Amino acid sequence: MELPCIKVRKEIAESTINKLKSDGRLIQGYQLRKEGEFVLIPCRDGNEKADFKEVRKNYLEHKGSFEKIGDFYVIKERNNWEEIAKMLIERANPRAIFLDSGVKGNSRIRDLKLIYGEGEPKAFHRENHIKLYVDLSKAYFSPRLATARIRVLNNVLKFKHDVVIDMYTGIAPISILLKKNGINVYSFDINPEAVKIAKLNFQLNKVQGNLAIANSNSLAKCLAKADQIIMNNPTQRIETSLEVMEHFKGKVIHLFLMLKKDQKIEEIFKGTEILEKYEIHGYSPSVSLYYLLMTMLE
Question: How far apart are CA 227 and CA 185, in angstroms?
Fold first, then answer.
């Protein structure tokens, strides 16, 4: 089908797609086209036109039900996971497929079961022009947050950012992205294995990290000296996040959290100014994962 599109160099294709998605300009459901060192991306306000092939229908129906990390896939446990696994085996020829039953414990480890192939849930993964070593048996990571991580970067740059805190850094996908853009960020995680992997990922991306193993919730009063605080721990109880945020008066906060779709955030987060609410993806029929940009009122 002939569609409007833009032509960009391969090295900026991923970040361009993420930007188009966040702006609602990407025309989804069609395969990208490669022309030498360039990629053609279908978008609503493109200044060129080209023919694009439609992505197979069954792939689109299941998109969002699985994640690709390096050479393996993760499927969220649901009623039709066998159908999704069959589609991936036929279409993607993966090294392995794991069934995800949810995130467990303070260390945020995904409860995974190998259902196809061989090996461990670890691989090198690329997103947003950074390279990450991922080991889901030791630390949490989700590629579905790649666009949200770019959104955090763009929003951090809008405000004073002499010092930024990444409270639950995990394997450091946000911290590294900020560091590569010249932002002074301090990173904490309660999971020692996550911090080990984060250190490796800083080395892979040739940036110097400020990393520490710590329960950052207990350090909230000290962390309040920063200009901005990133709270990417969506499985944490909202009540716990609210208690921590009480220390961040006058600060810019980037909060990831699970919310019921009918919940009113103004009622939950009294004493804050909500600057942005972004639905990252659905988590269940009634719950979605959100990113909130807010300030705590003095």
Answer: 10
Same domain, 197 and 107: no
Number of domains into which the chain is organized: 3
Q: Do 95 and 199 lie in a common domain?
A: no
Question: pTM (2 decimals)?
Answer: 0.79
Whether the Cβ atoms of residue 230 and residue 188 lie closer than 8 Å to each other? no
What pLDDT, in 10s, does the model give residues 156-214?
Answer: 999 999 999 999 999 999 999 999 999 999 999 999 999 999 999 999 999 998 999 99
Main-chain dihedrals φ then ψ at residue 161, nearest 5 degrees: -140, 45
Note whether residue 209 is domain-resident.
Answer: yes
Which of 11, 35, 51 is the endpoint of a domain? Answer: 51
Judge if 91 and 161 occupy the same domain: no
Task: Say if residue 180 is in the same domain as residue 228.
Answer: yes
> What pLDDT digit, counting tens, does each position of 241-275 carry?
999 999 999 999 999 999 988 888 888 998 899 99
In a domain, 133, yes or no: no
Task: Encode pLDDT of 93-147 as tens digits.
Answer: 889 999 999 888 888 999 999 999 999 999 999 999 999 999 999 999 999 999 9
| 129 inside domain | no
